[in-house]
Amino acid sequence: MVASVLDRYADCLGEERFLELVRRTVLEGSGAARRDLVIAIAPNAVDASAAELRWIAGWAPHAGQITLYENLFDQAHVEAHYRWRFLSDLQQAHPAPVTVPMFAVAHELGHLLLDGLRQEHVARGLDPFVLEELYATNLLHDYWAAPFDVPNESLADEVALWIFDIRRPAIVRRHLEGTLIHALAGAPESALTPAGHR
Hints:
There is one protein chain. The protein is mostly helical. It has one domain (2-192). Helix content is 53%, strand content 7%. The chain is built from 10 helices and 3 strands; from the N terminus they run ααβαββααααααα. The chain is globular and about 45 Å long.
């Protein structure tokens, strides 16, 4: 399952660009302690906050690791705590439905890639949060992938939705093509530098 998600990223970004972003992000996030990403399965959190007990996956930059908790594979747990607005769209994906575990892995990889893009933006003299700012400024909450959360969560969802080719409203698709997808491709930053975002 994890390999199939990694393959989708490599197909969408190109293997070289995908590996470049992953390795640079892991290296930077771990303070050069790691170069390669670790994806691990772990027991559910215990003696944690209510929010942490619900977790199904997480990205830890300092460890260079994506953790998949056992809750991710508990359908009753997922249905009780996760109600993505696009869940039915995942079930209708082609050539095959996208499962919740697949989407969770893709979402955490989305966070990793967004961290890598922030590093690129800083190196280019841009605000590291330009993608989040543009998303929040240019799209009404009704269009956000995760309207009740911070823009970074919506963007991680958008990355995952993009690699699985899940249909998004035209206004969202246009915005993402000129910003997020543009940045993921490593294209020049001109689309990310409207007035006030340097």
